[in-house]
Specification:
single chain, 725 residues, alpha/beta, Glutaconate Coenzyme A-transferase, 4 domains, nine-stranded mixed beta sheet, 29 helices, globular
């Protein structure tokens, strides 16, 4: 492509796509990474060409295309439009997703996703037929096997020392591997194109994110590509979510490693950790009243912690989300790791720390054979790279030069070793507090990254998912870095035998995709001090639709029971690794909602998986939402356990009305008679003054039809039913 020339800078997206089509032909398999890393204008231009020219066969292989919230029902659409107008003004949309939602996707275009927004596509036939099931670490391989011949991504660009420099920014995840694979295939005659958009608003990240322009055939750059980035508003954290977060927080060891995901449960975990770190007396009071310190004392003492974070945590997570930024601000995410096996061994043994270099460090490194007793250039480079030797030194023929002073590099002589102590550094350099594969979050998260100094931002490393999500290829170093790893993930359903369903319903419909979950499980099982913690809400639905998420068996499995580990609900913790089935079932019953415990126990007895006379201990027989409400209410009155512990882009009216409409939807599904009765009562009531601003927001002040009059009453009932009037 481009007659072998790479790194071409252009501002013409149409010309770029022309060149790609001319090079690869009209059968286009366009690969793009997930979430924020997609080049929207490139994707839209390829789609526009396919719409205009039916002879083009366009297959889009990607994950999680970001969509402006629009809603399904008329009430949802009216509620969401002001929010979308306010928060997403200037954020371009994917034209192919707009047409997919409208049922207008042309026959010559197909979309293949390996991961999607949870639950958003359960009833979308195109998505269900074209789901691309692949582990996150394998999706690049699988896309290439499927014939991906165009790879496109978003880049960050910055002028450093007078030259334009590029970074993959938010998505190193599959992009590092994709560039490598395509380059190798091109050497074999493969006709594949690699293109990108450079957006100056995208935070410029370091580590493996740094990339040279020559890696791309064409980079599109200019003001029109500096569009506003998609920022996801935070989900509210419900009391049950907060309780799950508190339960998980007791399992995180100071000085260890953490992985958490995006969403309410991720925020709940971090809120619990922040409470533990900043308000430890209150935190200890909560966990004591919740019974955690008595029920799980042995588990917490061995695998967890409840004190403040003196050593801090290191983050190893495919998703670098705002939750990690909150831990960083709170002084929790502060354990630095280094890409050196000998340094990590010394740090883990307590013989070295990131902020203090012992005077005998060189003796230790020589003893470990990390450096030669007679220093060589590579040893000097290693020692200066990590700050063991102070900056500004030079190495000439076995001697270290510090201005006019010289220090012989022959450490076999004690006098030389002692003399060199004068030029040791004060602290280690090039440490990282997190290694992430992609980042995504609210606008405030991007702003926080952009506002950091270059030096501070380098604490946040980015790399390919093949490095972040597994140990292979660097087992010894990664195991040292990820000590006391706690890999926290979410499941939808858990069986009494410890199997987890996370990505698919038992009827075959895909809810999201497996993502990196298998990798976390595998890594936690491989690390001698690692644990996988699966969070499962005990129930779903309400009223007549209320169901237990703890079941005897389920028709789909994401994590088989032979890989069971720690399972957490809002009612407690089940440590089910290395336990016989009967003990696993007993532990799972203890964390199930009490409204379903008898039925579950009976199923276990019928299957002869637990002794016939077994009884659930009385202390676990009161697992109800009311119990959690009563536990948390006094603390909520004091300002803890907020719905948005780290703030929100939503205003007070958004929260009040949105929460009320959510309750209304649940009422309609679980207690339809209550909804009907409530609406009948509202028909004979005047509109309350306190509801007027919400009515105006929904454009229902002057209803033009019977339908709009009913909708107006539904809004009022929703607010009243949720105690917002």
């Amino acid at each position: 492509m481009n007659n072998g020339k790479t790194g071409v800078i252009s501002d013409d997206v149409k010309k770029c796509v022309d060149q790609v089509i001319k090079y690869v032909g009209k059968e286009i398999k366009l690969g793009m990474t997930l979430a924020l890393g997609k080049p929207v204008l490139i994707a839209n231009e390829f789609y526009r060409r396919a719409k205009e020219d039916p002879s083009i066969d366009l297959k889009i292989i990607t994950a999680l295309p970001l969509e402006h919230p629009k809603g399904h029902t008329e009430i949802e659409k009216r509620f969401l439009k002001p929010i979308a107008d306010r928060l997403f003004d200037g954020v371009p949309e994917f034209e192919f997703m707009l047409d997919l939602r409208a049922g207008k996707l042309p026959a010559n275009v197909n979309i293949y996703e390996f991961f999607g927004k949870a639950g958003a596509n359960l009833n979308e036939p195109h998505y269900q037929r074209h789901h691309f099931s692949s582990n996150y670490t394998h999706c690049c391989r699988d896309a290439m096997d499927y014939g991906c011949n165009v790879f496109a991504q978003l880049l960050s660009v910055k002028k450093l020392n007078g030259k334009l420099k590029y970074s993959m920014g938010c998505n190193t995840d599959i992009c590092v591997e994709a560039l490598h694979d395509i380059k190798e295939l091109r050497r074999q005659g493969y006709r594949g194109a690699v293109i990108a958009e450079a957006n100056e608003n995208l935070p410029y990240m370091y580590g493996d994110a740094l990339v040279d322009a020559s890696e791309y055939d064409i980079i599109l750059q200019g003001q029109k590509f500096n569009y506003k980035l998609f920022g996801a508003p935070k989900d509210p954290v419900a009391p049950a979510d907060h309780m799950i977060g508190i339960n998980v927080s007791t399992l995180i060891k100071d000085g260890g490693t953490i992985q958490v995901g995006i969403g309410a449960l991720g925020d709940a975990i971090v809120a619990g950790l922040v409470m533990r770190n900043e308000h430890n007396e209150v935190y200890r009071d909560v966990i004591e009243k919740a019974g955690l310190t008595t029920r799980y004392a042995e588990l917490i003492n061995k695998w967890g912690d409840t004190g403040r974070f003196k050593k801090g945590l290191y983050g190893s997570s495919e998703m670098f989300v705002d939750a990690f930024m909150q831990m960083y601000k709170s002084g929790i995410l502060k354990r630095k790791v280094f890409d050196s096996i000998p340094l990590m061994k010394l740090i883990n043994k307590g013989e070295l720390s990131a902020d203090k270099i012992p005077v005998n460090i060189l003796d230790k490194l020589v003893a470990m054979k990390a450096v030669h007793a007679k220093l060589e250039k590579e040893d000097f480079d290693f020692l200066t790279e990590y700050g063991i030797l102070k900056p500004g030194l030079k190495f000439v023929k076995g001697t270290i030069k510090d201005g006019k002073s010289s220090y012989p590099g022959d450490l076999t002589k004690k006098a030389n070793s002692t003399k060199i102590r004068k030029i040791l550094g004060k602290e280690l350099k090039n440490g990282k507090v997190i290694l992430g594969a992609f980042f995504f979050g609210p606008q405030a998260f991007y702003n926080a990254l952009n506002e950091m100094s270059e030096e501070e931002r380098q604490l946040f490393g980015m790399s390919g998912v093949e490095k972040v999500n597994q140990l292979y290829g660097g087992e010894e170093l990664r195991a040292l870095q990820r000590k006391d790893g706690r890999f926290v993930n979410t499941g939808m359903v858990a069986s009494l035998l410890g199997a987890i369903a996370s990505d698919q319903l038992q009827d075959g419909r895909v809810v999201s995709g497996i993502g990196g979950q298998y990798n976390f499980v595998s890594m936690a099982q491989a690390l001698p001090d690692g644990r996988i913690i699966m969070m499962v809400k005990s129930t779903k639905g309400s009223g007549k639709t209320l169901k237990s998420n703890i079941v005897f068996s389920y028709g789909h499995c994401s994590i088989p029971r032979h890989l069971r580990d720690i399972i957490v609900t809002e009612y407690g913790i089940a440590d089910v690794r290395g336990k016989p089935d009967e003990e696993v079932i007993a532990a799972m019953l203890n964390i199930a909602d009490s409204r379903f415990q008898d039925e579950l126990l009976e199923q276990a007895k019928k299957a002869k998986k637990i002794q016939p006379d077994y009884k659930i201990p009385e202390e676990y027989r009161h697992n109800t939402p009311d119990k959690i409400f009563k536990l948390l209410k006094p603390y909520q009155d004091d300002g803890y356990f907020k719905p948005f512990p780290f703030g929100t882009d939503l205003n007070d009216d958004d929260i009040a009305l949105g929460g009320s409409l959510k309750v209304l939807k649940a009422t309609a599904a679980g207690s339809p008679l209550k909804l009907v009765k409530g609406l009948l009562v509202e028909l004979f009531r005047p509109l309350p003054e306190s509801a007027q601003r919400h009515i105006e927001r929904m454009k229902l002040s002057n209803p033009a039809s019977v339908k709009e009059r009913i909708m107006r009453k539904m809004v009022v009932f929703a607010l009243r039913n949720n105690n917002r009037l």
